[in-house]
Amino acid sequence: MAAKPSVEHLLETLARSSPEDHRLDELPEDGARPDPSLRRRTMIPVLIALILICSFAAQGIFNVRSNIVVWATQTSTAPLEVRLGGGRWIPVERLQREDISSALRTLHDGDVLTVHRLEVRRRAASRWRQIIAGALGSELIVLRIDPSKANFATSFRNDFEPTTAVERLRETPGAVLALPANYFDRQGRPIGWVVHQSKERNRALDRWTGFFFVADGKPYFGPHSLLAEVRAEKRSITEAAQAFPSVMRDGVIFSYVRSEPERYFQGLDITYRSLAGVDAGGHPVMLLSGSGGGLNITEAALIARALGVEHATLLDGGTSLQYAIRESGFWYRFGSFNHTLELPGGRLGPVRSPVFIVASLAE
To answer: Is 64 exposed, middle or buried (0-12, 13-18, 19+ CB in 10 A)?
Structure first.
């Protein structure tokens, strides 16, 4: 019987052997070694695919592209500019009615409403922020509605349970437009006046000056003085919502919009805005932030005036801004953040508001 090797002998043998003698992985039968570059080439497409999937998911969930642009420009003091026909840019302070037709790009021209895109830009406060904002772009959406073919109303769920613009469209027969009306408190309850089907559903606030209301079937948007005038005529108010601030009457922008923009509201903030008004012909006109379309209250009023708006008020905007449009196969939806984390629990849910203004097909 052969003698067993001693421990000292085994250690000496291991010390003399090369590292390759102890490899745990085995070579292929043909003796070829794996090509490290092949593994790298395989991983690159996988990483690119993962990045694209995450980017699309982030865009769909949080509207990242739009919010990056608003973030990049929100500290800027440069004026907002509108792109006219031929590629010329003009500050909104100089924008006139004769300019606006060449600036509007039609997205939809339907029987009830028309939808236009208005390309805008603002020079950012730093070079790299400007590169980001310029690459992603900014836009506003302009709606004009035929009041003879649409009925306007406030829309909400029982007990003002928060809901979304898409849900308001789905739950309202013939609806073509839904957008938030009143601001709301931390409990999700609407702030200010709400009337639906001639019944007051929420009390008015004396200090808030902007109103949407329907009198004898005709929609109005504007200041308290407009509402008081209609009431003095003993006309029936069947639908109403209250917001702030009102910004113009008879085509004249109120002085406090320019002189005291921070006194009653955050008027200088560059954020998502929702302005609703009526033109001289009684057509409702909405100016809404689109992707990257941050603007302050004065800029919103100036553009509305160039659009021919006579009376106007702002509605709930900022992180709450969302709207949905649907007519004759055309579908457009925007949400400033799309989703938010619901607490407690940390669940991901859509941004919601308690009260919406809905336009639906007239019967």
So the answer is: middle
What is the rounded distance in angstroms from the CA atom of residue 130 to the CA atom of residue 26? 55
Task: Report residue 166 as tokens.
Answer: 């898409």
Crossing angle of helices 127-136 and 64-73, rounded to 10°? 140
Amino acid symbol at 360: S
This prediction has a pTM of: 0.84
DSSP letter for 187, please. Answer: T
Tell me how far apart the terminal alpha carbons of the chain are, to the nearest angstrom: 107
Q: What is the spatial distance between Cα 183 and Cα 280, in angstroms, rounded to a whole number?
A: 27
Where are the strands (E) in 4-98, listed by range?
Answer: 81-83, 89-91
**Phi-psi region at 66: left, alpha or beta (left = phi > 0; alpha = psi -120 to 50):** alpha
CA 290 – CA 116 distance, rounded (Å): 11
Which residue in this structure is represented by tokens 């809901």? 163
Cα angle value 86/90/91 (rounded, 5°): 160
CB 103 within 8 A of CB 82: yes
* 285 in Cβ contact with 295 (< 8 Å): no
pLDDT in tens, the chain (363 residues): 445 455 455 445 545 555 544 444 444 555 556 666 666 666 766 666 665 555 555 555 657 889 899 999 999 999 999 999 989 999 999 999 999 999 999 999 999 999 999 999 999 999 999 999 999 999 999 999 999 999 999 999 999 999 999 999 999 999 999 999 999 999 999 999 999 999 999 999 988 899 999 999 999 999 999 999 999 999 999 999 999 999 999 999 999 998 888 876 788 999 999 999 999 999 999 999 999 999 999 999 999 999 999 999 999 999 899 999 999 999 999 998 755 555 555 566 788 999 999 999 998
User: What is the number of residues in the chain?
Assistant: 363
Asked if omega into 147 is within 30° of 0 (cis), the reply is: no
What are 245's two structure tokens? 């601030």
The encoded tokens of residue 349 equal: 């849910």
